[in-house]
Every structure is written in structure tokens, then in C-alpha cells.
Amino acid sequence: MNRRVVISVLLYLNLALLVTLIGYKAYLLLFPADVEALHSDQIARLETQVADADRLRLAVVGNVNNSIGVFENQIIPRINDSEADLVVSAGNAVSGGGEDKYRALVGTLSHLERPYLLTFGENEYEEFGSYRFYERFGPHFYSARAADTHLVFLDSTGKTPVRWQERWLDDLLAGTGAAHVLVFMGHPLIAPEEEMFFASDDGAWSAPQDRARLMGMFARHGVDAVFSAGPATFADRTRDGVRYVTTGGGGGFVLNTETSFYHYLTVSSGAGEVEIGLERLDSGQSPLMSRLESLWFFIYSLFYVSAVNFLLIFSALLLVTVKLYRLLYRERDYYPHYDVDPTPWRGRPLRVAMFTNNYLPYVGGVPISIARLRGALESQGHTVMIIAPGYPDADGADDPQVLRVRPLVPWGLSGEFAIANIFQRGIRRRLREFGPDVIHLHHPFWMGSLGLFLARRKKAPAIYTYHTRLEHYAHYIPFPGRLFRNVISHWLVERFANKCSAVVVPTAAAKEYMRLIGVWRPIFVQPTGIDYETFLTVPESRVAALRKELQIGDELVLVTASRLSPEKNVAFLIRAVARLKERLDRPFRLLILGDGADRPRLEALITTCGLQDRVTFTGAVAPEEMAAHYRLGDVFVFASKSETQGMVVVEAMAAGLPVVAVDSSGIDDFVRHGHNGFKTLEDIDAWAGAVESLLRDDALRAEMGRWAQAFARQYALDAFADSIGEVYARALAEERRQPDDSRRRRTA
Length: 748
What we know:
By secondary structure, this protein is an alpha/beta fold.
């Protein structure tokens, strides 16, 4: 069975499972649970419970809104432990009138150990919920009597004509004979004094004359109190001897103010009076938790499974289906389009805007690469503007072509990823004034996302340079690190790259990676250039001064250059040097150029290995000083496997150093085994053996050094600028193709 058939079978199997899940949801909607006329049963329970009582005790709650966190988890336990005879919802017990909301409400009410009655409110009515309420609970307006108290429930939604209800109400109250009358309606007749967000409408009695007529009827018949939900607030006011109580804190969104908070009411009627108490919850629910609860309720009501099972089943199937669909049906065209003519843009001065999450004076591979690209492009007549985070010692005032973006949060100002304020208004204005022909992005998130957004707005090609293997930075992500390493990092790169016009990668291995994760945009292999001549013209006096400063004698010197962080694998070098010390009788030293947070751990490892006299840290080295430091060495060593391009490897070659490196995607294109250096497995003995062969054989070391320097010549900055200029030209030509063809490619 060939691969395409297997993928087809898996795709249709996943589609069948998804259809089954959707069908199950439809079944829940079309075949509701066998529940009907619940109010009839609740009234019967109530009458039995208070048959001989002279007082009726109620718990009144409004705006439950299917709340699990507030109503189900906080209010219901308190009511169950109280002396309440009956629980009354003053309206909005559900968050909407959908079938799932009503099913969930019935499940929630099952936790009550007391009878309950519901007011037909606005939320019960919406989304065709009126028939669901009628079927499950009973009529939209009704009454019940218990312990000499008459409970009246009105429909204020407009579903039932108000004149009909008023005639019924007038007759009912005229002959009630009860000592007390309590009325419940979903909309308050007296608006809250405080203006509320997300307030409901005024209801069926919203017209002044209608409202006055109903309130007059209440006063005439001696109604004790009218309870309403609606606004998420609490208010208690008296008009013509009737108390009008608004209670809207049973679980919906509240403002956590003096009038808007989570609460319910205790009502006691008997002995000639009605007492109303306020039960305020000790802790409220934040807007964030409210939103999360709403999301969980959606999941809960969708399939009635746990959150873990739902996410595992539905999300996994959806992701697999999408992936299979893309593998099976999306057309790919990885070859260049030869009908694109970049000639009009070749040799033409362009305006290039670059977006990056870090830049000089922060010293790292990406900032140095950007600085070199900028210099090379400017030397050919292009104009470059860099949009980068601001640092305490670099406000950009000395460089008008660098727009420094203020930090969004102080703790994000860490160099490697400074959390810049991408919402800073000046960015868009400066970019508009600059008028870029091309926008070049150096990270697939944050500043890179801003640059991509602005490129689309300005209809300019967006070029993405893939600098960093994000999966090797998962240890910086506290949670979920493994998920980030295995899924999120690759998805982030693939999604971002496919939104750009073209992608630049430094090595063939990086291009293969891009294709494997699903990038279909044009990909150009172009390593970062180096200032080749700089490495040939280092004054011997400067090298001699450095040797004296670092106390380097006649010993051979191994040089490495790296930020000191776990993903750079410097610890491997230290352990391998310890093994080399056991095998080699010639004196040597390891010189580590760079600094970072991992330095204390590495220094402790050096002490443990007894290498204090064999390893020297120089700290951070300025870019312009790197050439002189390379000239101190005899062999360049490297162990990082997180590079897309080991730029320092090419620099060391330009300085005439053979290389011994752990084989990885970052050095595979540059180190030719046995010619300009050695590539080894991440094996201490193999690595130590390769270094030993170079340190023992002066002639071999010199010959490989000459080959390394000759190899590095092809990465001079002028060739680098030419290649990137060609990428820009092709992207501009592609952008200017016929509109219908352009649209077709974007949606391919």
C-alpha cells in the first residue's frame, strides 16, 4: 500500500470520527432529555415541606447564567446548609436559551436539596429558548402559594402580552387572601442608579405608562416586594409601600463595586412582615476566571465529557485532519518561478525596513548578522532602517536609521528577547515616512509579527530570515516546554514563513527543515556574510597585547566563541577538554569568548574537572575585537547544535583556523571533514581524538588552516549583499505579478 493511500485512509477515518462527534452533538439537540413540567413537582415538594409552617423562607438569586464557579460551587452549598424552604431564580438562570444551556442548568439544579422555581427572563427567552423553558419547567407566568405567602412569577420578556398578564394578575391578587405577596420578574421596574455595562433592556413594561400602571396595581393590592434580575447589581428601593429589589449577582459578570458584586438574598415572610437579608459572597470572580469558566461551560455543554477528554479527542482529531488534508491535497511548487523577471529591481537602490527582537549593543549572532547585512546593503546604495528594542545604553539618538522601541514591561528587557512595545504609535508613522520597498523580518514572532502586519498593510514583500532553531530554546519556556519543543516551535516557524513572500536560510540543512515542516514559499540558501578582509589585516601588535593580557604563553590555544547558555553546549567542550588533557602531553589552553547566565555553572564544572589552569573566560568581546581574538588560536572548537548557521565558525576560518565541531545543521555546510577541519559525533572521545590529531601535527594544522581561510573567502560581504539583493528583486517581481496569479499563489 503506497503512502498516498495510507494518508487518504487516515484522513477519511479522522473525518468520520469528527462527523460522529458532530452527529452526537446533533443527537443531544434533537433528542432532549426526558424532563418536563419540573415546576409542578417543585411546587408539590414545597407544599408538603411547609404544610404546617407559619413562615416561608426563600433564597432568591438572579443572573445565575449557568455559573459553575459562583452559583454551583459557592451559593448552592450555602443554601443547602441553610434553613431555606425554597430557592427562587429572579431571572437569567441560563446564559442563553440553547438546548445545551438548559441541559446544564437542570444538572446544576440537581445539586440543590431544596425545591426551586424559576422566573422566565431574558436569557431564558433568547435563542428560541421559550419553548425549552415551557417544556422543562412550565408556563412563562404562573403563581404558587405556600405558608400564607403568594408567589407570583411574571413574564417581562414580551413573549406573553402584558395586557393578558395584567388581567390575570389583577384577578389573582384581588382574591388571593394571602398574608404576603411576592412578585418575581426578569426585568426591574426601577432602573439602577449606577450605569451598568452589558445591562439588559427594560423589558415588556419599559414604556412609562405601562410601568406606572403595573406599579399602581402592585401598590393597590398590597404587594410586599418585587424581585428582579437583569442588571448585575444589587438595589433595594421602596415606592408606594412596595419594595423593589434588584438582585443580579448570582454568577454572571459583575463589576466588583459597592453595588455590583456576587450575592444572593434571604427572604422570610410571616408574622405580618417580610424580612430581606443580603448574603454577600466573601470572594468574587475575576473577569478572566469568568471568561475561562464560560469556555469550560461551552466544552461541558458540548459533549458532556471532561475537559481533558474533550481536548484530547476533538483537538487531536482536528489537528490530524488538517495535517492529513494538507499532505494529501495542497499543491506544492518548490521550484522557483522562472517567468518572474527581477531585472527592473536589480541594481536599483531599495529602501529596506528590518524588524528584530534584538540588536546591538546586545551581542549575539542575530544582531551581528543584521548589522553586517545592513552595512553590506548600504555599501551598495540601499537605505536600511532597523526597528529594534531599546536598551538602557542605546536610545538610538546616535543612529537616525535605528528606531528604538520602548520596552512594554521592564522585566522583559533581557537582550535575548526584549519585550518591546509593538503598539508604540511612532512605529507606524516612522515606517510610513520611510516608505520601504521591502520589509525584512528576523524573528517569527513579536517584532517579526508586527513587521509582517505592516508589510501586508503597505503591500510590500516580507522577507523572513530563519536565524534560530526555536526548539532548542524550550528550556526557557517553563510550561509547556516539551510541547513547545516538539510542536509549537515548528508550527510557529512554518505558519510565519508561509505568510511571507520569501524565506532566507543559511544552510541547505535549514532549507530541508523548512520543507519538512511544510513551508512552501520560495526559500533561498544564503549564509550570513563576514568582513573577510578584517580577519586578514589584524595588527600583530594587537595580538601580542592580547596574549600578554590573557597571560597566554607558548601553549597551543583552542578558541571557541559562544553565548554562555545551555543550548550552546559549552559544558560538552569542557568535559572533552578534560579528556584531551589526559591524552595529550603538549600544553594547551581553551579560550572561551563570550558571556552569559550559564557562566557560574560552567566555572563550577571547570573546577570539578580540575581545568582551572587550562580554561580561560574572556567575557563578552566586542564584534570589532573578534578578529584579533581568533588570531590567538591554533584550532577553533565548537559544540553547539542549536545553530542555523555557525557564523563564528566561518569567521574563525577567515582567521586561518581549522575547525573541530560537533556535527549539526549549523556547521554541516561549512566544515568539510578532513579538508578544513573535522566534524564529529557528540562523543567526547571522538571529539578529543580529532583535536588531538591537529595539536600533534603542526603541518596538518597549518594546511587545514589555509584551506579554511580560502573557503571563507566566498562569504565576503559584497557577495552576501548581492545575494540578498537578488532575493529582494525576485520578491518585488513576484509581488508585482498579475493580480489574479498573485492571489492564486497566496492561497495555494
